[in-house]
Write a structure and sequence with these properties.
- The protein is of the alpha/beta class.
- The chain has an 8-stranded parallel barrel, surrounded by 6 helices.
- The longest helix has 18 residues.
- It has a single domain, classed as TIM Barrel, CATH 3.20.20.70.
- It has 9 helices and 8 strands.
- 40% of the residues lie in helices and 17% in strands.
Length: 208
């Protein structure tokens, strides 16, 4: 199983963000975060590509990995660490375009999604929502940490997403998650760096 860039994946969402995404990205790196995912899929193509280029420069300066949601070509052009896909069917073309070194993930909302991503050769899934959260409305009731135990039986790294905080991150890892993914908890924070630091320490305490 491929090592991931870190135990914490921070996902961008400018609609929830209290600060510019670039400011949050820099704080992620300064406070120990090693992995950022550019989401914001509703941006116009040119705006999103410009933002991705700025985030790639910050990632290089701060020493963290940058992934891109959905857009395989954008990930290739900016030299992103990987791409996060909405369905397992896109894993093979992503691997063909980005190469074996790329970290390729898939969104999962149930165990069948986890199995499909593993079969397709993805490196990880985000399984959500684990806890109740306003950021993942429309994806059904919270799956709970029991779902992480079941997902861990598949040969793929599982990141717990949805309502995860520094107080619950350890519980997710103890249940079998390889790490956690967080969006609103960091985006909405007045001090995103402090939240990132708290989450990283929680993950490190829970890692054997």
């Amino acid at each position: 199983m491929r090592p991931l860039p870190g135990p914490l994946l921070v996902i961008t969402d400018r609609h929830q963000a209290c600060h510019p995404i670039e400011t949050i990205a820099a704080a992620v790196g300064r406070f120990g975060g090693r992995w950022l995912l550019l989401r914001d899929r509703d941006l116009a193509r040119e705006e999103r590509w410009d933002l991705a280029a700025r985030l790639a420069r910050i990632a290089a300066e701060q020493g963290f990995a940058l992934s891109v949601s959905t857009d395989i070509e954008l990930a290739a052009v900016i030299g992103a660490a990987g791409v996060h896909l909405q369905a397992a069917a896109a894993v093979v073309p992503a691997r063909e375009r980005l190469g074996r070194a790329a970290v390729i993930g898939v969104s999962a909302h149930g165990l069948s999604d986890v199995a499909a991503a593993a079969d397709a050769g993805a490196d990880y899934v985000t399984l959500s929502p684990i806890f109740p959260t306003g950021s993942k409305l429309g994806y059904g009731p919270a799956l709970g940490t029991a779902s992480l135990r079941l997902a861990a039986a598949h040969e793929i790294a599982v990141l717990a997403l949805g309502g995860v905080t520094a107080q619950t991150a350890g519980t997710c890892l103890a249940a079998g998650a390889h790490g956690v993914a967080v969006m609103g908890e960091v985006m909405r924070a007045d001090d995103p760096g402090r939240i990132v630091g708290d989450l990283m320490r929680a993950c490190e305490r829970a890692t054997p």
